[in-house]
């Protein structure tokens, strides 16, 4: 009976067939221990010389790392095994003998591992991270689909920037200029006016010449947008969203979290209660008390965000940033127009911003004024139409998938959060 390693517990006492690869092996003379993987997990197969044919035992002796094999054996429970089960092997069929594998248990440099990323992702740690990534995506979709959101796919090629920045990848679009998208938000605002609650999920691109552990050139964003939604309602939804994601990972990825040695206590606190909230004014005061040379009107950098999150054991909302340092479409606070009705959500443990969100400007006259201040031309005329024809208060946010994964997994660098990272000096493989 064919089985996967992930489901092996259903077949205790039965003979199964596993189709996979040899991850590692060791021998004690008359017994060989095969570390098998099949993509769903890892398990040890025990080959006893007296219980298999001489040909099978000889084959096991010459198997190389990552050779593809079909293995038959009886499943037995074993508390000492990481998965709780082992396989008493009765037969092994060689599919393909692998050449000498370039990645060994010894230490390798980061550049070497990145050059061999296509092979590195087979390792237990990298496989666990990619499995957690998949579960995080599943949780995000579950929450949004279950709360009345409709997925809408914005274009990847756009005629202009979303936020008026210069960090754009330029390309020719026949006789016109085009850019790889930085965000689908403006298009989601249009979709929200048609469908009420919407979200996009797709790749975005930032041509930032940054080498920090938090930056990728190509990354994935989830961007919900909601008609008739206030700033306060927006933050409440973000909190419930993040709690749902973390709760789902804790329920479905215990084995993977153990594989990457993630301390789950900080994650458990995330789902226990409300997230703390402070204003930008309060954040500036806290930073100044901590010795940072920062003034009202300055934006936060990574050191500022890291120190702020050390004061709290859960994700932290910082709201009402100065209007001057935020995007043109963000709604000013009617009671204090120099700040916006928006917030950043900072992950704890020093991981920094994972969500940026705000209420959007819905007044056509105010948006027209912003257009003039930012020198936005005809490329944005369709965006102004959203205020001309049935404008309503609306809000939304964007959450970076890879930064969220880095925080939940407790990783030092976002390069491990995506199968094939695109970095400042890396476009291979």
Written overview of the protein:
This protein is an alpha+beta fold and 429 residues long. It has two domains: 5-96, Nucleic acid-binding proteins (OB fold (Dihydrolipoamide Acetyltransferase, E2P), Beta Barrel), CATH 2.40.50; 117-416, BirA Bifunctional Protein, domain 2 (2-Layer Sandwich), CATH 3.30.930.10. It has 13 helices and 18 strands. The strands form four sheets. The protein has an eight-stranded mixed β-sheet. The protein has a five-stranded mixed beta barrel with strand order 1-2-3-5-4. The chain has a three-stranded antiparallel β-sheet with strand order 7-9-8, with no helix packed on it. The radius of gyration is 26 Å and the shape is elongated. The two termini are 37 Å apart.
Summed up, what is this model?
By secondary structure, the protein is an alpha+beta fold. It has 13 helices and 18 strands.
Characteristics:
429 residues; alpha+beta; OB fold (Dihydrolipoamide Acetyltransferase, E2P); BirA Bifunctional Protein, domain 2; 2 domains; eight-stranded mixed β-sheet
Could you give the topology of this structure?
Blueprint: E1 15-27, E2 31-37, E3 42-48, H1 54-62, E4 68-77, E5 85-96, H2 110-115, H3 117-120, H4 124-146, E6 150-151, E7 157-158, E8 170-173, E9 176-180, H5 185-195, E10 197-205, E11 218-227, H6 231-252, H7 254-259, H8 265-270, E12 277-279, H9 280-289, H10 302-309, E13 316-319, E14 332-333, E15 336-340, E16 342-347, E17 352-360, H11 364-373, H12 381-388, E18 394-400, H13 401-409
Parallel strand pairs: 3-5, 6-10, 12-13
Antiparallel strand pairs: 1-2, 1-4, 2-3, 4-5, 7-9, 8-9, 10-11, 11-18, 13-16, 14-15, 16-17, 17-18
Helix pairs in contact: 4-6, 4-13
